[in-house]
Amino acid sequence: MTEENSAVRGHLTWITAAKEPVDHAVSETGLACGIAAGGVFLALCGLWFGAASMAAEPGGVCEACHAVVAPPVPEPRRRPAAHRPLWRRVVTVKGPWRGIGA
Prior knowledge:
Layout: H1 3-9, E1 12-16, E2 22-27, H2 28-36, E3 40-42, E4 48-50, E5 60-61, H3 63-69, H4 86-90
Parallel strand pairs: 2-5
Antiparallel strand pairs: 1-2, 3-4
């Protein structure tokens, strides 16, 4: 496990930036350090930002933070038809018997 992924495993908080209406993901440790630093937080995307007021509307999600939090899931590989078991190639769901007795 990399250090980048270990920060994501804990609790995350989404905080709206003051200068631009974008929500950034902040780790639990980053939240505690940001509160101690007077409201300057380090997002998972690496951006230092000041938090907007609680009355501010939430903004859009930071794409870089979202990529760290939820990386794209690769599609499962399917075996080519030639490598499937023989019974799977012979037996199909399509046929004249489909729907009989229903």
